[in-house]
Structures are given as C-alpha cells and as structure tokens.
Amino acid sequence: MIGMRLDLPNAKTLIDEVAEAVATRGKEKGIVVFGEADDDLISDKRYDNNLNKLKHTVAFKAQQNHALYIHAYKNERHYDALIKTLLSSFETLYPEALWAPKYRSLVTQPGNALENIEQYYQDLSKSYSFPVLPTPERWNSVNSLRSIGRYLLREERTDEAEQVISRLLEYMPQHMGAHLILSDIYLAQNKPTQRKKILEKGLQIATKRQHPSIAQFKEALKL
User: Fold this and answer.
1) pLDDT for residue 5 is more than 90
2) Rg (alpha carbons) of the chain, rounded to whole number
3) What is the SS3 assignment for 33?
4) By its UniProt entry, which InterPro entries does this protein fall under (predicted)?
5) Tens of pLDDT, residues 124-137
6) Disulfide-capable partner of 12 in 16, 18, 21, 84 (CB 3.0 to 4.6 Å)?
7) Domain residue limits, the chain
8) Over residues 68-75, mean pLDDT
C-alpha cells in the first residue's frame, strides 16, 4: 500500500525499499503494483505525497524490465483497496482471458480436439517459461478435459472424446468419472472388450477407495 511508512527520523519508507530492490535486480523481469483508497488520499496528505514520490521514483523509470502499476480506487476504504490491488496483481500476471480459455471454442477450430487444446497450453507455457497443463477437472465448469470429453461424445466425435478422456486419466489415474465416461465412449464405439476392461479397472479402484461410484460400475458391467 502506498501509505505504508516508518514514522522514524530518516527512516526509509516502503517505497524507498521497493525502489532499491528493483534497482538491484538487474535484468530480472517483474511487476510492481501499488494501490490506495481515495479515502486515504483525501484524509491524510502524507499518502498523496507518497503517491507523487512513487510516480517520480528514478529507480522505477530506469528499469526497462519492470512494469509499474499504480491504482487509486474511488469510493473505497483502506483494506478494500488492498484486496482489489491483490486481485489486480493476479489479473495483470495471469489474465483470465489467457488462463481460462473456452474449451468448446478450441475444439470447434479446425483440427483434432486434443491437439488444439494441448497446442494452446504449449503456447501458454512458452510465453510464461514454465509448463502449464490443461485443466483435467473443474467443478461446475465446461472448461475442463472431463466436460469437453462429454461434449465430444454428445457430438459423436467419439475418437476425439476417447483421446481427451485418456489424457485426463493420465493426469488423474484414479478419477472415477473419467473411467465411467470412457466406458460410455467405448459403448458408442462398439468396443465391448475395452469397455469391460475399463469398468473392471474402475470398479477395482472404487472398491479399494470405498468410493460411492461402486454401484455405478457394477450396474454398468451388467450391460
């Protein structure tokens, strides 16, 4: 927060400390985000002084690898501004538009469904310089491998559905729902041997874990 300071003679403020840290980090890339409520700026002149000081800090201007963001929130109080600044920082680093892609949009593009999804995450990984994988499961959301596998099955794209759910099982080998979905895919593909095998495997895992899906597996094996 812009207003944080040490009220001691000749003491450094938080802004001084951050500016020095940025200046000594060399070529490392990063962002610095400050936020303040307009209520603080109005009620205490020292906050406004710190804001102006921050805007003109030479250390920040000299650093090409660091982006500086300053937010002054209207009609907000002190701690509300802190929460908004934290959320803004995450959005700046990891924009929702990039990190929460619409899976149905990816699989409706030309090409193979799984390849489209994985290519998206490979590009994302490259831009962030660390591995980013597709979301295997996400509660109450269509943007996951499990949900998009179901969608592909409904669209009668069974081969692609099989690939997607198989990848989900690579990430989460004991995922009960994925075993059941894959059995439905094999049923649609008229592959009774593979279907029986995946159901028996799922039942074995469910029994070992005393999972509520035991009855579902037993019922499916009767078909």
Assistant:
1) no
2) 26
3) strand
4) TPR-like_helical_dom_sf
5) 999 999 999 999 99
6) 16
7) 14-93
8) 80
Tokens of 168: 């989900």
- The overall average pLDDT reported for the chain is 87
Q: Determine which helix (DSSP H) or strand (DSSP E) holds 205, and give its type and residue range.
A: helix 192-209
Q: What is the sign, positive or negative, of the torsion defined by CA atoms of 67, 50, 18, 5? A: negative
For 107, the token pair is 């699989």
Average pLDDT of the residues in 133-151: 95
Statement: residue 45 has pLDDT above 80:
no
Predicted structure pTM score: 0.78
Q: Which amino acid, one-letter code, is at 59?
A: A
Q: Dihedral (C-alpha) 174, 175, 181, 187: value to the nearest 10 degrees? A: 10
What is the pairing mode between strands 66-73 and 30-37? parallel
For residue 157, give the amino acid letter.
Answer: R
d(CA 140, CA 156): 22
Q: Rounded CA gap, 189 and 83, in Å? A: 51
Spatial contact of 169 and 162, defined as CB atoms under 8 Å apart: no
Quote the CA–CA distance of 22 and 211 in Å, as a whole number.
Answer: 52
Q: Report the b/e string of 153-164 with b at 16+ CB within 10 A.
A: beeebbebbbbb
